[in-house]
């Protein structure tokens, strides 16, 4: 099962690279239309944290000799796959407006398709304005647990919560609040 875990972590790393390609293309699209970037200060920490998650999974499983525990590993794997599905649903729903950075094109209305349609229907439900981060949170604890990397799951979850709640989500909220509602 260790090889399977390496494949899952490797596939996640490739998925991240695909995100960066999509993000760079979408950033060019946004900036060409007058896009404004905010929240740049936390971006390097976010990149380091997400890179660290992948590295820590491989290091912990080897250094701590973590076993595969089927009753934890298989449900965790299902959550990893589900989080990827949600992430790509968000990316395709936002189209060229999705980015790993916080870039808003002034004058564009709120997106009201895909998982974002619930937000458009319930604008006061701020807790669900960011379904992509639901995917990030789930993947962050589930990926390490596929092969019992408890320490990585715990440390990433805590650090990710600090990064999301103190920096990323406030930056996104300020950017979204500037968009017109249709």
UniProtKB/TrEMBL annotation:
Membrane topology reported for the UniProt record? Multi-pass membrane protein
Would you say which domain of life the source belongs to? Bacteria
Please provide, alphabetically and separated by semicolons, the GO molecular function terms listed in this UniProt record: protein C-terminal S-isoprenylcysteine carboxyl O-methyltransferase activity
| Gene Ontology CC: one annotated term | membrane
The record's subcellular locations are: Membrane
Residue intervals passing through the bilayer: none
- Show the InterPro entries listed in the entry: ICMT_MeTrfase
Keywords for the protein's UniProt record, in alphabetical order: Membrane, Transmembrane, Transmembrane helix
Descriptive protein name = Isoprenylcysteine carboxyl methyltransferase family protein
This chain's source organism reads Oerskovia turbata
Q: What is the lineage of its organism?
A: Bacteria, Bacillati, Actinomycetota, Actinomycetes, Micrococcales
């Amino acid at each position: 099962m260790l090889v399977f875990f390496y494949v899952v972590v490797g596939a996640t790393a490739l998925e991240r690279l695909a995100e960066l390609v999509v993000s760079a293309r979408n950033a060019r699209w946004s900036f060409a239309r007058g896009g404004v970037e905010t929240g740049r200060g936390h971006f390097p920490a976010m990149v380091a944290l997400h890179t660290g998650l992948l590295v820590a999974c491989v290091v912990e499983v080897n250094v701590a000799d973590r076993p595969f525990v089927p009753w934890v590993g298989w449900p965790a794997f299902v959550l990893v796959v589900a989080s990827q599905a949600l992430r790509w649903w968000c990316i395709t729903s936002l189209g060229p407006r999705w980015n790993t950075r916080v870039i808003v094109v002034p004058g564009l209305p709120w997106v009201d398709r895909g998982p974002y349609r619930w937000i458009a229907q319930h604008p006061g439900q701020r807790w669900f304005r960011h379904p992509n981060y639901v995917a990030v949170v789930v993947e962050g604890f589930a990926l390490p647990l596929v092969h019992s990397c408890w320490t990585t799951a715990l440390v990433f979850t805590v650090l990710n919560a600090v990064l999301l709640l103190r920096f990323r989500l406030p930056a996104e909220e300020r950017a979204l609040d500037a968009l017109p509602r249709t």
